[in-house]
Amino acid sequence: QVQLVESGGGLVQTGGSLKLSCAASGRTFVNYAMGWFRQAPGKEREFVSGITWNDGSKAYADSVKGRFTISRDNAKNTLYLQMNSLKPEDTAVYYCAAGLLGTFWSYARRDRYDYWGQGTQVTVSS
Asked: How confident is the model at residue 102 (pLDDT cuts 50, 70, 90)?
């Protein structure tokens, strides 16, 4: 049974930093891509960042480029999202997800991901 468990969320002031973690278990994630999405109240879930488990190729939404860094630790089966220079508009529930890579892979498409975590709340105060 695949499990993705996020942690590391919390309350931080504008300009602060947080590091999210996603512990993955239940299968090997070779040939998978891992993604971070977020959902603010009243808004659709949106792509934040993604990484391929094999070679570490990365992708970022324009809104977080230069501020967020995605990484993974293959030995620990853990995905990370380092978030710096946080803004109030970054406030959301953050989800990690895993999807099997295929032809015409798109990190941003939610329907390409097979597994999702339960989410962790990030709140940035102004």
From this structure: confident
- The CA-to-CA distance between both ends of the chain, in Å, stands at 40
Cβ(18)–Cβ(6) below 8 Å: no
pLDDT digits 0-9 by tens, 40-67? 999 999 999 999 988 889 999 999 999 9
Q: Are 13 and 28 in contact (CB under 8 A)?
A: no
CB 38 within 8 A of CB 21: no
CB 101 within 8 Å of CB 52: yes
The CA distance from 75 to 72, in Å, is 9
Q: Provide the token pair at 120.
A: 């962790």
124 and 12 in contact (C-beta within 8 Å)? yes
Q: Reduce the DSSP state of residue 107 to 3 states and report it.
A: coil
pLDDT at 105: 87
Region 95-106: what's the mean pLDDT? 91
Q: How many CA atoms lie within 13 A of 89 on its CB side?
A: 4
